[in-house]
Structures are given as C-alpha cells and as structure tokens.
Amino acid sequence: MGNDQILSRIETMLPKLTLSEQKVAEFVLGSPDRVVSMSVQEMAAHSLSSSASVVRFCRSIGLKGFPELKVTLSADLAQEQKSGYYDLHKNENTAELVDKMLSNAMQSLRDTVGQLDVGQIEEIARCLHKAPAIFAYGIGASSLVAEDISQKWLRMGKNAYAFLDTHVLTMSMAAAPPGSVFIGISYSAQTREVLQLTKFARQSGLTTISFTGFGRSELSELSDYNLFTALAPEAKVRSTATASKHSQFFIIDTLYYIYASMNIDSSIDHIAKTRKAIEELKRIESEH
Description:
It comes from Paenibacillus donghaensis. This protein is 61% helix and 9% strand.
C-alpha cells in the first residue's frame, strides 16, 4: 500500500463500522496527530473502547494492525491538505462548479490509488490473461464500466462480453469453457442482480472478480478477487458518483496496461489488427 488518504477512508467507512469500532474511528478523526504517538492500550483508553476493538477497527479499514495505522497516519498528515469532496448547490457559480468537480475527481483518484493493492491487481491481470472468456456485468452507470472492459479486452483478442440481458449472460456463462472469468460491478456492492450473477458464476466454475467501493461486503466475500475504488461521501445531488466513475475507469485502465505489458509484442499486434479492421470498415462505409 502506498501513502494513503487514510482519514478520508475512515470518514467514508464510518457508517459501516461496528459501534465499538466507530468510537475508535471518531477519536482518530478528531485527534490523528495524537494517535501516531500512542500505544494500542492508550488508544483503547482514550477512545473508550478496548485493545481488541482497536485492532478490529484497523483491519476493517484494510490495515494489518495498529502499527500500520500509525505509519499511514503519519504519511497522511505529512501531505498537503486534501482537496475534499463537495456537493452541488442551487444556482451554483459555473467557475466554482468546475473547481468542485475537479476537486471531487482528484480526491477520488488519490483515495483510490492510496488503497490500491498492487499484488491483487497483478494477480487479476494474470487471471484475465489465462481466461478463454471474460464476462462483465453492471447496472446503470456500472454498465458503462462493463462495456469499457469488454471493448478493451476485445482489442486484445479476448472473447469479452458485457451483456445487459441477464438471461443471455446466464446462458453464456453456463456454457463458458473452464477458466473463464466473471466481473461483477457494483459501487455499493449491494446490487441484487450482480450478487445473483456472481453466485451463479461461482456455481458454474468461473473465476469471480468484484469491482466495488472499498470495504468488506457480501459481494467481496463471494468473489475470488476484489477491485476497489475509494468510497466517497454520499452527496445530495450525487456529484460524488461522477467522481467514482473516474476512479473506476482509472482502475480498468491500469489493469488493461498491466495486462498488455505481460506480452507487449502480442498486445501491440492485436491493437494494430483491430485498428486496421476499423479503418477498413470506415473505408467501405465511405464508398457507399
């Protein structure tokens, strides 16, 4: 894990924590500079919790333990103040709106990179490299991410699909060759259809990958591998949902380039062939 925007992560994960873990989280958010010099016992006493709660809190936010929390907090405090997330308001000044959207996008990308598990994304790239077929599914805005996955890996010569019809997708996965992969996309990790299709994919012998906002969930537990983006605070006008899409596309781009670098000569060859095919199609269309 690189230098993380850990305070932002704790703030956005606060509602998902247990009551005892929330006590620890609230103390960290209120006095991060004090936490870096405390022992786990002192932390427990000041947050009116227990040493076990402190350790569970650290693990719930994706850290190995209290020492890693102190190290990550120190790195976070040493960085410039984060830009933060902003919602939209009535009759927003256009210049201010542009600044807010830029801030949301940048903050989401920083937080996403901070919690990125490099080892996990490399394993996923290797898994996709071996897969005879790749299926990606999401609803609403997540369907755009699924379509992006399909298009990128089609260019690499893979059988990659982003069916919107769940019946067609189910039939395709049932007949998929061994080693095929299903990627379920749900920022909330609670989309019913994505959960159902992930369960079916597991039953059918497919390797399952979840692509969600950061944190443990039923979907992440069901999946063999997990891709996470940062969780942004809920916004009244859902401006942060726009920011989350930037992070999702960033993760897919990163995964795509890792995948391509595994066999760069073959990747370049596939891209050249698909580009040539599109150019030929445009030539034929221009003649009619």
